[in-house]
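Dig into this one:

. . .
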Amino acid sequence: MPRPLVPPDPAGIDPELRAIRAGLGRRRAALWARRAVRRAWWALAAVLAAEAGLLAVARLVPLEAAPALALVVVVAGILAVVVAVVVARPSLGETAIALDAEAGLADRLASALAFAAEPAPDGDPGAAARAGFVARQRRDALGALAAAPGSAFRPRIARVPGGLALLAALLLVPLGLVPNPMDAVIARDRAVREEAARTAEQVDQVAQRLERRGGTTEDPRTRLARDLRDLAAALRDDPGGLDRNLARLGGVEASVREQLDPSNEERAGALAALSRGLSRAATGDAAANPGGDPAAAQDDLDGLAAGLDGRSPEELARLGQALAALQGAAGQAGSGADAALRDATDALAGGDRAAAAQALGRLGDALRGAERRVATNRDLAGAASQLQDARRRLADAGRPGSGTAGTPGQQGQGQGQGSGQGQGSGSGQGSGQGQGSGQGQGSGSGQGSGQGQGSGQGQGSGQGQGSGQGSLGGGGSNARYLGSGTGSGAARGPLNPNRPSGAAGDEGSVYAPFDRLGRPGDPTYVAGTGGDGGQVQPGTGTGTGAGTPALVPYADVFADFYRYAQTTLDRSYVPLAVKDLVRDYFSALDPTGQEAN
């Protein structure tokens, strides 16, 4: 069906024609409103269909920008309606045609406008007849316009777009109310990116500290700082690449771990003991250099070398004997200290003052070299430990859920220790300790018993066992999830350290002979080493048992041992499961009831 010709709006000045134009102007607003409503229905159907499609896609793929896209769809629909309404504003001719069709006026209004738009040609003999016909037609059109119903252009529901909108709305209800499984994936990805950004910032901070402490470009700390800068840049460039970032962290951590000296802390203890012994031998002061400072020991050795000319052969011999007693500690300190000390003792025994002074100078330099070596290893171990913690946090951020089961790990190993000590007349105490190690989760339990007689002598026995189980992805430096460890156990005996804080008997004592061994962390403190698990060390004695001041309330010494444990963890590279075990252990013993972090 051909589209009807829309006549142009006339510009005549006839009163009846002006009345027709005024009446069509009022009807044009109603027609425009109907067109606007119709286009709004189409826009609503399109928006709802687009929203339903967006929500459906968001359930198949993790679409983090879905809320923003949904808002964009709504705004785009509103803008489309505004543009469509502006474009749809009808002319008077379109209004006349539409009203003729709506009210059944048989093209009266459109014909009136068409006749008005066609002026009569000059010299037309039938011009008078045509003018009379046009006048009668205008009066008829004006009467028909006045009789046309006022509800002719009333807006109504468009069936097709209305049906589409209803269908889309019905689809939106379940899509919007039922939880979206992709929300967990989006939250995990967001957490991974945020943790990657935090990790990059922390890695930069570690690199800054290493750069300040690294003396030269060839210093291991300076080289590691450059690697950490590159690592931080890679984390920022690819924050969402969880597996790639874990691999990067694990690679740098592994390279640092290969440079670590596992006996560094033993070397540091030997260096402190050697420095303290050298200062006291050089100055003759039994209280000199209590902290075992290698720099102070070097100054004392320089002073000794400068005063060798004034010493007698007997004094040189006694000095050589005193230095020879430190040979074992010098061998553990490394950096050539043992060779320099041996040369110094030989020169002093032979009375060669010049050679002795030279050897003492080399010994002082060896002490400072050993000190730098210990400090470098501690810095590297601290950096590796921080990378290890960052890798675990990043892996935890990418975990789908804490309850996800993993693959079984290897069976843990356990060992026990027992000790006993007598107290009082004919009484004794025993304690046991169990240890367990494994990857993932582990548990340990221990028990001990003791019996003593006489003056504090006794016997004890202990045993322990442990088990471990890994999770998610296995071990290795590049594992997606590194596992976690938890421990549980029950200690039995007169001193139960696992009882609730504040319970009856909370003032129980522990054996802490600080006056004899020094406090944990003091330069004179030497940590003990475990013996064979489960062995019994019997002892007998005679005499009257007596209380010992080495038994103190454990709440008074908890902070000392906790700080010592934290310092040791910071200075050493230990597995994550061991860190968790130590922290859980001190959390269980904390007399304040606060968690040890």
